[in-house]
Structure formats: C-alpha cells, structure tokens
Amino acid sequence: MRALGVAFSARKSGNCARILEFCLQKFEERGFETKLIEAYDLKITPCSHCSYECFSGKCPIADDVPRLYMKSMNADLLIFAVPTYGGHASGLYRAFSERGQAIFKSYEEWDAFTRKLSFIVVGNLSSGGDMALHEVLYGLAGGESWPEAILLSSNEYSGSSLKGEPIEHPEVGARLERFVERIAKKMGGWYVQKPWIY
C-alpha cells in the first residue's frame, strides 16, 4: 500500500512538511510505502485566461497540476497538509483544487479520489484556521464519503507556528497518532495498489 502526503505550504520544509513526515513515518511502521511532495517545489497555477476548456478536459495551462493529480490518484491513501494564510486555506491548495475540474472525467473518478483523502489544516483559530478547515472540506461536499480532518493550532500548545514548533509538542504527536489510526481503520478495502507514476 502506498501513502502520499502533499504539503501545500509556501515554505520549504515548514510545519506542513514536518507534520506529514511524522504521519508518513507512522504509516511506514504499518508497512506502507510513503512519499512526501512539497507544493513549494512545483508550479501550481490558478485557473486563468481560458474559455472553459476544462469542460472538454483540455486545460490550456501547462504546469505541474496534472502530474500532481496523477500521483495523487495513483496512491492508496492521501494526506494533504494545508496551512492558513490570511484567514483562508493556502493559495497553492486552492489553485490545485479548482484545477481539478479539468482532471476528473467522471463522478466515479472524483469519488475514488476523495475516498482516500484526509486533511491536516495548520492555523490558529484567531487567524482563520477554522474557516480554512471548512474551506477544504466544503470543496468535497456532496460526495459519498467524508475525509478525516484535524486542525492543528499552535495557540493550543502555547507555541508559535512561525518557529516550526507544533510537531515538537507531545500532544500534537499524540493527536497525529490518533489521526493516523483513524485513517488506517477507515481504509477497509477501498483502495487498490497501483505502481507510482513519476
């Protein structure tokens, strides 16, 4: 089984990446092959300058979004870590999400993608972390499954998200272990192993 974590942070090796590394290590201990991708390293462009070519499945934007969707669909489970910027889910995540309308060819494809998806949102309540969590979940409304999701707020642990401290707090580790356990229990035969696409 293959677990893919994607950090949608504008910072290289920031909180999202470190939190995903922790989770992916727990899946490795369960026998999974794991991979971490940082959106920081990719070109992710929002919808722009088009005439609804997405409805024909031929998006005119040439960037890394189709390849990232392919890798995501090829994994057995997905964890997206999304930071909060300006009271919203990061622009990198929102751009990736909106571009999905040119990727999925059927409801069945979209449903298979969402069934294996879970979210970690990083952000304090005072800076819109709760709204960012609702944003990522609302984008999946109407599906037959609901992703596992947690909001990690450094304020809860008297820390600073800017200093990369959340993952160092014991309670954050404990919450992430419970999160991984919920995902592992939920898998229940939904997924078929496929080779990675590079």
User: In the CATH classification, which architecture applies?
Assistant: 3-Layer(aba) Sandwich
Main sheet: strands, sense, barrel: 6 strands, mixed
Strand content: 15-25%
The averaged pLDDT comes out at: 87
Number of domains: 1
- Series of H and E elements: EHEHEEHHEHEH
Query: Which outline best applies?
Result: globular
SSE-based structural type: alpha/beta
CATH topology: Rossmann fold
What gap, in angstroms, lies between the N and C termini? 17 Å
Uncertain spans, ≥5 residues at pLDDT below 50? 189-198
Number of strands: 6
Task: Walk me through the structure.
Helix 1 (15-29) packs across helix 6. The chain is α/β, with parallel strands linked by helices. The protein has one domain (2-187): 3-Layer(aba) Sandwich (Rossmann fold). 35% of the residues lie in helices and 17% in strands. It is globular and about 50 Å long.
Descriptive tags:
198 residues; alpha/beta; Rossmann fold; six-stranded mixed beta sheet; disordered C terminus
Sum this structure up briefly.
The chain has helices at 15-29, 65-74, 91-98, 107-115, 129-138, 170-187; strands spanning 2-7, 33-38, 77-85, 88-89, 117-122, 149-152. The chain is of the alpha/beta class and 198 residues long. Strands 1, 2, 3, 4, 5 and 6 form a 6-stranded mixed beta sheet that branches.
List the helices and strands and how they pair.
Layout: E1 2-7, H1 15-29, E2 33-38, H2 65-74, E3 77-85, E4 88-89, H3 91-98, H4 107-115, E5 117-122, H5 129-138, E6 149-152, H6 170-187
Parallel strand pairs: 1-2, 1-3, 3-5, 5-6
Antiparallel strand pairs: 3-4
